[in-house]
Design a protein that fits this description.
Elements lengths: L5 E2 L2 H4 L9 E6 L4 E6 L2 E6 L1 E11 L1 H10 L6 E7 L13 E5 L9 E2 L6 E10 L4 E4 L2 E2 L4
Parallel strand pairs: 1-4
Antiparallel strand pairs: 2-3, 2-6, 3-4, 5-6, 5-9, 7-8, 7-10, 9-10, 9-11
């Protein structure tokens, strides 16, 4: 089995991906980390990652399968361009919203404080422990 590199933060991820192309990140519950996909291939695993122009994606079919079978499977991602987290330090103290997602209770990634569904954000900070923050969040329009 081909072991993927394991790193701790965004700036280390940059050596394993094409930094000009977006990635998809999901929580890997078996390895207790985040898996970073690019071009449909897991490139590395990481503890924490910061993404720019983040999109919060949920596969409705995958979500329904999780709900029906009560068995976890990858169906939700945060997509965006990896940024060197050391370069976003000036944003740390203001304007971040906590983001939650639980396929049994919410249909989409959700702002914990307002309960509104998040569609995109200028930046997303995702941690393997399950913490997610969004800066400059844009919300889904009610349907």
């Amino acid at each position: 089995m081909n072991k993927k590199p394991y790193v701790t933060s965004s700036h280390e991820v940059l050596e394993f991906i094409n930094p000009d192309k977006p990635v998809r990140v999901y929580r890997n519950l078996h390895r207790k980390c985040l898996s970073v996909q690019q071009g449909g291939i897991v490139r590395c695993h990481v503890d924490n990652i910061v993404l720019m122009d983040a999109k919060f994606l949920v596969s409705k079919a995958g979500q329904q399968k999780v709900r029906d079978e009560k068995k976890k499977q990858v169906h939700a991602y945060v997509a965006g361009t990896v940024v060197d987290s050391r370069k976003t330090l000036e944003l740390l103290d203001c304007g971040w919203s906590e983001v939650i997602y639980n396929p049994y209770y919410t249909d989409y990634f959700t702002c914990k404080e307002s309960g509104r569904y998040i569609d995109t954000a200028w930046f997303a900070d995702v941690d393997a422990e399950g913490s997610m923050l969004a800066f400059g969040a844009m919300y889904k329009c009610p349907t």
